[in-house]
Amino acid sequence: MCLGIPMQIIDIDGFVARCEAKGVERDVNLFMMQEEKLAVDDFVVVHVGYAIQKITQAEAQTAWELYDQMLTAD
Known about the structure:
This protein is α+β, with helices and mostly antiparallel strands. It has one helix and five strands, in the order E-E-E-E-E-H. The chain has a five-stranded antiparallel sheet with strand order 3-2-1-4-5, covered by helices on one side. The mean pLDDT is 95.
């Protein structure tokens, strides 16, 4: 199963964005989303180092709530 991680953009330099999720920062490649207008504070779904979809803050929050539930399930 593949899992996309919602992350918030904190800096953009060309096709590379510095993104953050739950206190963890990563460099994310934006090449696959070059047609999309992305800005600092936007949320994206990241899969294997690439941003693949822009999402709302509410969608990101919902995804993290589900992931947290999965991690705490018996």
